[in-house]
Amino acid sequence: MRRETVRAGGAEMAVFRPDGATRRGGPLLVWAHGWGQTHAALLPLAESMRAAAPSVLVDFPGFGESPLPPTPWGTADYADAIAEWLAPLEPARHVWIAHSFGCRVGLQLAARHPQTVAGLFLVAAAGLPPQRSLAARARLGAHRWAFRLMRSLTREGPARDRLRERFGSADYRQAGALRPILVKTVGEDLSESARAVRCPVALVYGDQDRETPPEIGERLKNLIPQSQLYLLRGFDHWTVLTEGRHQLLQRLGEFVERLS
Protein backbone atom coordinates (compact mmCIF):
# COMPACT_ATOMS: atom_id res chain seq x y z
CA MET A 1 0.00 0.00 0.00
CA ARG A 2 1.41 3.37 -1.03
CA ARG A 3 0.35 6.39 1.02
CA GLU A 4 0.42 9.93 -0.31
CA THR A 5 -0.57 13.29 1.13
CA VAL A 6 -2.30 15.63 -1.29
CA ARG A 7 -3.56 19.17 -0.80
CA ALA A 8 -6.83 20.38 -2.30
CA GLY A 9 -9.44 22.93 -1.31
CA GLY A 10 -7.13 24.25 1.39
CA ALA A 11 -7.08 20.88 3.16
CA GLU A 12 -4.74 17.91 3.32
CA MET A 13 -5.91 14.41 2.42
CA ALA A 14 -4.25 11.06 2.88
CA VAL A 15 -4.76 8.84 -0.17
CA PHE A 16 -3.79 5.22 -0.60
CA ARG A 17 -2.95 3.07 -3.62
CA PRO A 18 -2.93 -0.74 -3.34
CA ASP A 19 0.22 -2.34 -4.69
CA GLY A 20 0.18 -4.97 -7.41
CA ALA A 21 -0.52 -5.32 -11.12
CA THR A 22 -3.76 -3.93 -12.46
CA ARG A 23 -5.57 -4.02 -15.77
CA ARG A 24 -4.47 -1.28 -18.15
CA GLY A 25 -6.87 0.82 -20.13
CA GLY A 26 -9.71 0.82 -17.61
CA PRO A 27 -10.94 3.67 -15.43
CA LEU A 28 -9.49 4.65 -12.08
CA LEU A 29 -11.62 3.39 -9.18
CA VAL A 30 -11.89 6.03 -6.44
CA TRP A 31 -13.10 4.67 -3.09
CA ALA A 32 -14.83 6.94 -0.56
CA HIS A 33 -15.76 5.79 2.96
CA GLY A 34 -18.79 6.50 5.15
CA TRP A 35 -19.19 8.67 8.23
CA GLY A 36 -16.94 7.65 11.10
CA GLN A 37 -14.97 5.30 8.86
CA THR A 38 -11.67 5.46 6.94
CA HIS A 39 -10.30 4.02 3.72
CA ALA A 40 -9.74 0.75 5.61
CA ALA A 41 -13.48 -0.03 5.49
CA LEU A 42 -13.31 -0.32 1.70
CA LEU A 43 -9.80 -1.70 1.31
CA PRO A 44 -10.82 -5.41 1.07
CA LEU A 45 -13.20 -4.54 -1.77
CA ALA A 46 -10.58 -2.44 -3.54
CA GLU A 47 -8.02 -5.24 -3.29
CA SER A 48 -10.54 -7.67 -4.79
CA MET A 49 -10.94 -5.33 -7.79
CA ARG A 50 -7.19 -5.04 -8.34
CA ALA A 51 -7.18 -7.15 -11.51
CA ALA A 52 -10.03 -5.14 -13.05
CA ALA A 53 -8.74 -1.58 -12.67
CA PRO A 54 -6.36 0.60 -10.63
CA SER A 55 -7.71 1.98 -7.37
CA VAL A 56 -7.09 4.90 -5.05
CA LEU A 57 -8.72 5.25 -1.61
CA VAL A 58 -9.17 8.47 0.30
CA ASP A 59 -9.46 9.47 3.94
CA PHE A 60 -11.74 12.51 3.82
CA PRO A 61 -10.39 15.58 5.66
CA GLY A 62 -11.16 15.07 9.33
CA PHE A 63 -11.17 11.25 9.09
CA GLY A 64 -8.47 8.64 9.47
CA GLU A 65 -5.05 10.03 8.62
CA SER A 66 -6.35 13.32 7.17
CA PRO A 67 -6.44 16.41 9.42
CA LEU A 68 -9.60 18.48 9.80
CA PRO A 69 -10.50 20.90 6.99
CA PRO A 70 -9.83 24.58 7.67
CA THR A 71 -13.55 25.30 8.34
CA PRO A 72 -16.61 23.09 8.95
CA TRP A 73 -17.23 21.75 5.45
CA GLY A 74 -20.46 20.69 3.82
CA THR A 75 -20.55 17.98 1.20
CA ALA A 76 -20.16 20.57 -1.58
CA ASP A 77 -16.84 21.63 -0.05
CA TYR A 78 -15.68 18.02 0.09
CA ALA A 79 -16.75 17.52 -3.53
CA ASP A 80 -14.92 20.64 -4.72
CA ALA A 81 -11.71 19.51 -3.01
CA ILE A 82 -12.02 16.01 -4.46
CA ALA A 83 -12.55 17.45 -7.96
CA GLU A 84 -9.42 19.57 -7.61
CA TRP A 85 -7.44 16.49 -6.57
CA LEU A 86 -8.83 14.19 -9.28
CA ALA A 87 -8.53 16.57 -12.23
CA PRO A 88 -4.89 15.80 -13.12
CA LEU A 89 -4.91 12.09 -12.19
CA GLU A 90 -4.36 9.35 -14.73
CA PRO A 91 -6.26 7.57 -16.11
CA ALA A 92 -8.61 10.47 -16.77
CA ARG A 93 -11.84 8.43 -16.40
CA HIS A 94 -12.84 7.99 -12.76
CA VAL A 95 -15.48 5.78 -11.16
CA TRP A 96 -16.59 6.97 -7.71
CA ILE A 97 -17.31 4.03 -5.38
CA ALA A 98 -18.72 5.11 -2.06
CA HIS A 99 -20.54 4.07 1.08
CA SER A 100 -23.09 6.20 2.99
CA PHE A 101 -21.56 9.65 3.62
CA GLY A 102 -19.19 9.15 0.69
CA CYS A 103 -22.28 8.85 -1.52
CA ARG A 104 -23.35 12.35 -0.50
CA VAL A 105 -20.00 13.67 -1.68
CA GLY A 106 -20.28 11.63 -4.88
CA LEU A 107 -23.67 13.11 -5.78
CA GLN A 108 -22.29 16.60 -5.25
CA LEU A 109 -19.18 15.73 -7.24
CA ALA A 110 -21.12 14.46 -10.27
CA ALA A 111 -23.52 17.41 -10.15
CA ARG A 112 -20.95 20.17 -9.63
CA HIS A 113 -18.04 18.70 -11.63
CA PRO A 114 -19.58 16.37 -14.25
CA GLN A 115 -16.33 16.08 -16.19
CA THR A 116 -14.64 14.50 -13.16
CA VAL A 117 -16.49 11.17 -12.94
CA ALA A 118 -17.56 8.60 -15.54
CA GLY A 119 -19.89 6.81 -13.13
CA LEU A 120 -21.07 6.51 -9.53
CA PHE A 121 -21.37 3.22 -7.65
CA LEU A 122 -23.18 4.17 -4.46
CA VAL A 123 -23.66 1.74 -1.58
CA ALA A 124 -26.23 2.63 1.11
CA ALA A 125 -26.46 6.13 -0.28
CA ALA A 126 -27.63 8.94 1.97
CA GLY A 127 -28.62 12.41 0.83
CA LEU A 128 -32.41 12.61 1.01
CA PRO A 129 -34.53 13.23 4.11
CA PRO A 130 -36.00 9.95 5.41
CA GLN A 131 -39.72 9.43 5.00
CA ARG A 132 -41.41 9.14 8.40
CA SER A 133 -44.92 8.29 9.49
CA LEU A 134 -47.05 10.91 11.21
CA ALA A 135 -46.41 9.22 14.56
CA ALA A 136 -42.65 9.13 13.96
CA ARG A 137 -42.63 12.80 13.00
CA ALA A 138 -44.56 13.61 16.17
CA ARG A 139 -42.07 11.70 18.33
CA LEU A 140 -39.14 13.43 16.62
CA GLY A 141 -40.78 16.83 17.08
CA ALA A 142 -41.37 16.16 20.77
CA HIS A 143 -37.76 15.02 21.18
CA ARG A 144 -36.44 18.19 19.55
CA TRP A 145 -38.80 20.40 21.57
CA ALA A 146 -37.66 18.80 24.83
CA PHE A 147 -34.01 19.27 23.89
CA ARG A 148 -34.48 22.94 22.97
CA LEU A 149 -36.42 23.64 26.16
CA MET A 150 -33.82 22.02 28.39
CA ARG A 151 -31.00 23.69 26.46
CA SER A 152 -32.60 27.10 27.05
CA LEU A 153 -32.55 26.38 30.79
CA THR A 154 -28.97 25.12 30.88
CA ARG A 155 -25.80 27.21 30.82
CA GLU A 156 -23.03 26.48 28.35
CA GLY A 157 -20.51 24.14 29.92
CA PRO A 158 -20.40 20.55 31.25
CA ALA A 159 -24.14 20.46 31.97
CA ARG A 160 -25.05 21.46 28.43
CA ASP A 161 -22.50 18.98 27.06
CA ARG A 162 -24.24 16.22 29.03
CA LEU A 163 -27.54 17.38 27.56
CA ARG A 164 -26.14 17.09 24.03
CA GLU A 165 -24.85 13.63 24.84
CA ARG A 166 -28.27 12.58 26.13
CA PHE A 167 -30.32 13.87 23.22
CA GLY A 168 -27.85 13.50 20.33
CA SER A 169 -27.60 10.54 17.96
CA ALA A 170 -24.80 7.98 18.26
CA ASP A 171 -22.95 9.73 15.42
CA TYR A 172 -23.41 13.08 17.17
CA ARG A 173 -22.13 11.74 20.49
CA GLN A 174 -19.07 10.22 18.84
CA ALA A 175 -18.31 13.03 16.38
CA GLY A 176 -15.94 15.01 18.61
CA ALA A 177 -14.18 17.69 16.56
CA LEU A 178 -16.23 16.65 13.52
CA ARG A 179 -19.53 17.61 15.18
CA PRO A 180 -19.92 20.95 13.30
CA ILE A 181 -19.44 19.10 10.01
CA LEU A 182 -21.96 16.43 10.99
CA VAL A 183 -24.55 19.05 11.93
CA LYS A 184 -23.96 20.83 8.61
CA THR A 185 -24.15 17.76 6.39
CA VAL A 186 -26.71 15.46 8.00
CA GLY A 187 -29.62 17.77 7.21
CA GLU A 188 -28.67 18.40 3.58
CA ASP A 189 -31.29 17.55 0.96
CA LEU A 190 -29.42 16.59 -2.21
CA SER A 191 -32.50 16.22 -4.41
CA GLU A 192 -31.38 18.97 -6.80
CA SER A 193 -27.87 17.53 -6.99
CA ALA A 194 -29.30 14.11 -7.80
CA ARG A 195 -31.41 15.58 -10.61
CA ALA A 196 -28.27 17.15 -12.09
CA VAL A 197 -26.30 13.89 -12.27
CA ARG A 198 -25.87 12.76 -15.88
CA CYS A 199 -23.41 9.89 -15.62
CA PRO A 200 -24.44 6.23 -15.10
CA VAL A 201 -25.22 5.44 -11.45
CA ALA A 202 -25.63 2.14 -9.60
CA LEU A 203 -27.53 2.36 -6.30
CA VAL A 204 -26.98 -0.63 -4.00
CA TYR A 205 -28.74 -1.20 -0.66
CA GLY A 206 -29.08 -3.98 1.83
CA ASP A 207 -32.78 -4.69 2.24
CA GLN A 208 -32.33 -4.69 6.05
CA ASP A 209 -30.69 -1.25 6.15
CA ARG A 210 -32.25 0.97 8.82
CA GLU A 211 -29.64 3.75 8.64
CA THR A 212 -30.28 4.57 4.98
CA PRO A 213 -33.43 2.60 4.11
CA PRO A 214 -33.87 1.33 0.53
CA GLU A 215 -36.77 3.75 0.08
CA ILE A 216 -34.10 6.46 -0.21
CA GLY A 217 -32.69 4.49 -3.13
CA GLU A 218 -36.11 4.32 -4.75
CA ARG A 219 -36.41 8.09 -4.60
CA LEU A 220 -32.84 8.63 -5.82
CA LYS A 221 -33.52 6.32 -8.76
CA ASN A 222 -36.51 8.48 -9.71
CA LEU A 223 -34.34 11.60 -9.57
CA ILE A 224 -31.22 10.37 -11.39
CA PRO A 225 -31.80 9.79 -15.13
CA GLN A 226 -29.23 7.02 -15.74
CA SER A 227 -29.58 5.00 -12.55
CA GLN A 228 -30.27 1.43 -11.53
CA LEU A 229 -31.27 0.18 -8.09
CA TYR A 230 -30.13 -3.13 -6.61
CA LEU A 231 -31.33 -4.67 -3.33
CA LEU A 232 -29.09 -7.23 -1.66
CA ARG A 233 -31.19 -9.54 0.50
CA GLY A 234 -30.34 -10.08 4.15
CA PHE A 235 -27.81 -7.27 4.65
CA ASP A 236 -27.91 -4.03 6.62
CA HIS A 237 -26.01 -0.75 6.43
CA TRP A 238 -22.72 -2.33 7.51
CA THR A 239 -22.90 -6.01 6.57
CA VAL A 240 -23.52 -5.08 2.95
CA LEU A 241 -19.78 -4.28 2.85
CA THR A 242 -18.66 -7.45 4.63
CA GLU A 243 -21.03 -10.40 4.48
CA GLY A 244 -22.48 -8.99 1.26
CA ARG A 245 -19.05 -8.47 -0.25
CA HIS A 246 -19.29 -11.09 -3.01
CA GLN A 247 -22.65 -9.86 -4.27
CA LEU A 248 -21.41 -6.29 -4.09
CA LEU A 249 -18.29 -7.13 -6.09
CA GLN A 250 -20.37 -8.88 -8.73
CA ARG A 251 -22.49 -5.76 -9.25
CA LEU A 252 -19.43 -3.53 -9.21
CA GLY A 253 -17.57 -5.67 -11.71
CA GLU A 254 -20.52 -5.54 -14.10
CA PHE A 255 -20.78 -1.77 -13.66
CA VAL A 256 -17.09 -1.15 -14.34
CA GLU A 257 -17.17 -3.49 -17.34
CA ARG A 258 -20.05 -1.52 -18.86
CA LEU A 259 -18.15 1.75 -18.39
CA SER A 260 -14.99 0.24 -19.89
Describe what you observe in this structure.
Helices cover 40% and strands 18% of the residues. The chain is an alpha/beta fold. It has an eight-stranded mixed sheet, with helices on both faces. α2 (75-86) packs across α3 and α4 (134-152) runs antiparallel to α5 (158-167). It is globular.
Structure summary, number of beta strands: 8
Distance between the termini: 25 Å
Whole-number mean pLDDT: 88
Alpha-beta content class: alpha/beta
Largest sheet: 8 strands, mixed
Q: How large, in whole angstroms, is the Cα Rg?
A: 19 Å
Low-confidence stretches: 136-141
Strand order of the largest sheet: 1-2-4-3-5-6-7-8
Return the string of H and E elements: EEEHEHEHEHHHHHEHEH
Overall 3D shape:
globular
Helix content: 25-40%
Sheet-strand content, in percent, reads: 15-25%
Helical element count?
10
Describe what is shown at a glance:
The chain is of the alpha/beta class and 260 residues long. Helix content is 40%, strand content 18%.
SSE map:
Blueprint: E1 2-8, E2 11-17, E3 28-32, H1 43-48, E4 55-59, H2 75-86, E5 94-99, H3 101-112, E6 119-123, H4 134-152, H5 158-167, H6 170-174, H7 179-186, H8 191-196, E7 201-206, H9 214-223, E8 227-232, H10 245-259
Parallel strand pairs: 3-4, 3-5, 5-6, 6-7, 7-8
Antiparallel strand pairs: 1-2, 2-4
Helix pairs in contact: 2-3, 4-5
